[in-house]
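WARN no homologs supplied; continuing
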Amino acid sequence: MHTLKRSSGTAAGIAVALFLTLVFSSGRLCTQAFAAVTEAKIGFAFSMTGGAAAYGATQKKGADLAVEEINAAAGPNGLKIVPVLEDDASVPQQGINVFNKFINADKVALIIGPTLSNTAQVTDRIAQKDGMPVLAISNTAPGITEIGDFIFRDSLTESVVIPYTIKVAKEKFGLKKVAVFYGNDDAFTMGGYVAFKKALADAGLEVVTEQTFAKGDRDFSPQLTQIKSKNPDAIIVSALVEEASGIVNQARQLGIPASVPIIGGNGFNSPALLKNAAESAEGVIMGAAWNATSTLPLNKKFVEAFTAKYGNAPDQFAAQAYAGVHIAYAAIKKAGTATDHKAIRDALAQIKDLDTVLGAFSFTPGRDAGSTPVVQVVKGGKFTILGE
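OK structure emitted
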């Protein structure tokens, strides 16, 4: 019995020693693993060339500012972002090349982009298949997040922004009948058209004519002449900024008065509209996810920092890019890893009431942005809140 007791005690001691060794070893491994997460690669797929370059340029500025601020605040031992920027050239095929590079060569923690919904409809399927988290910062067309559970966006969808815009415009201008003008060869413009059609029907507004254009068109006078002949109370336009600028300019040149407001979707939210349409842009209305005049302390700081760095105020696309970097950073930090994409995806899904320039940000159960839109009007060459 005595011998057995001594043997049991020895065995127990050995077991305890082994257990403690494993605990301390595991602790060291966990500490080392966590300590090793001092940098995370984020892939940025922006349209730096092509038809959406105006959006991509301002997105890059917003993202660059966020990365710069985050890395400075992280200090010598904190988690830093390593940005990997690639130009998706505003076309799906180049977007595919960029996403494949991010996933297979760069081994990024997460992808932010691409700029256009048209491209996202293709690239996000690649990311979903490979289990790579994607955060869209300007994709507003329907069906993007439905691609799969690795796809998120901080940009408000047209299906959220447009009905609110129509409601506010109807009340403000007493609208009864409208003309609709949209691009029929692009996922974004088609998505905007569908959202506008539903919102107009729900608001009880009569559509007196529908006209279409194609990406790259320059002469809109035949369609605008038809629209003018119908004498609408407003012209509803779903277009990207390049075509939107031409439509706005030519509408006023053809004698459609400023008393007939032009109401656009998310594609109008670019300084390029103010630059290219100049005085013709006065009075143009569009829904948005953000406005520079927001008095949120974080937003005021962002606007001041952006203006000081680049010499001009930010637009919505810069703000959504800036917010997107902070959202991605919060998720990677919470996950404690730059390589476990499932953990990063799960951390993104848990983002709730994060303080951003867009306000207290949360994702909806469907991984869309859960925030409230605003309605903007161009006044004095600036985007201002309608009615203020």
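The longest helix spans residues 2-36.
OK
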